[in-house]
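Submission sheet (multi-component)
Chains listed below:
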Amino acid sequence: MRIDMHCHSTASDGTDTPAELVRNAAAAGLDVVALTDHDTTRGHAEAVAALPQGLTLVTGAELSCRIDGISMHLLAYLFDPEEPALLAERELVRDDRVPRAQGMIAKLNGLGVPVTWEQVKRIAGDGSVGRPHVASALVDLGVVPTVSDAFTEEWLADGGRAFVEKHETDPFAAIRLVKAAGGVTVFAHPAAAKRGRTVPESAIAEMAAAGLDGIEVDHMDHDADARTRLRGLAKDLGLLVTGSSDYHGSRKTVALGEYTTDPEVYGEITRRATGAFPVPGTGGA
Ligand code: AMP
Ligand code: ZN
Ligand code: FE
Ligand code: FE
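Outcome: structure written.
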């Protein structure tokens, strides 16, 4: 069983449509793929409709959170997408991404970069708009050579010259909301230092005590030392350990299934979830 628990589509800042994503996941030899777009479940229906035989879809989202001024991502799996309190919080975060992107564009204009909201909007389509879309516009304008080169102090990194904060949920509130909606939570790439300050282990311990289910350990942004340390922490705190690609199509270099999750951990996640169930593929459209 090959299981990839963290992927993005055009419903947020990935470049595969949800239908393309599930077809590519099957072609990559995956048995299970999770669709975890930033702050939205909007891609799920299309992914289900296109789901190939032999591939199982785990529905989810990657929730934008902040603790003590540090941004962090919380993967939420198999929650009830209609549960009103979690739905309202997702909408709040997702909707705030629009004025926030416009604020970053204004800052870029102030720095002499002629990027426009129309241009970024065209790139984002109806997806949850984020910095990678703005970064793609900067690549198109020849300001930076690649999307990842836009994530520097000079441009869009946390605290960078053109950075603007968005509304982000307190992770303890997010854990409570996801649980109340029948879902399971995994702290995404907790040691991804190149993205900015990381959350201290003491706070991860508090989250574990508050019901966090797991941490993502095998991820491209974690080196061998970070993985060893996180595995030890998970053991101490009784947390599940996952691995995943965090695939974004052509906006990142990582391949689908490049990192995977142990089938036993996947089984435990599905046993804990009561809000939704994994969807087996029936052939697709
Ligand atoms: P946002 O949610 O709009 O703040 O954008 C955050 C997203 O930008 C993350 O989920 C990643 O997909 C991407 N990102 C963050 N840091 C980097 C980086 N250093 N290089 C490339 N992409 C990044
Ligand atoms: Zn992303
Ligand atoms: Fe993330
Ligand atoms: Fe992600």
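Remark: Strands lie at 3-7, 32-38, 56-67, 70-77, 184-187, 214-218, 240-243, 279-280.
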